[in-house]
Predict the structure.
Amino acid sequence: MAVQYCSSFSLETLQGVHDFTSDVIKLAIYDENASFDSDTTVYTASNEISPAGYNAGGAALTLLATYPKLEDGWGSLRFDEVSWTLTEAATVRRGLIYNSSKANRAILAITFPLTTTNRGDFIVRFPLTLAPQVQHRFSLG
């Protein structure tokens, strides 16, 4: 599984745009035609899956009770697992974590390890291979 922070998130973190204790953070899932990378700045509905059991925009993530907090000197976020019960088959390849409270600004792009045809429960458990934590190194000079 590949996980990549969206570059705009680094700047927005310094600007205080995101408030993980009150903003609605969502995970949307997409088919194999979607393409996200560090240059992704906002949520899009393009190539989002659309089977019964999934609503456009994805699902809200629930921040675990003790987060945000410091872990090994880094600001960390952890979310509870999120799931959808799909009543039709769907091909899922990518995901995007974004802030729906702040103009749908992108946070984290996910590429799932294999294109998955799924009917039934589709579950994303955190942490991912690279935990979705706020881990940024900034140069001062």
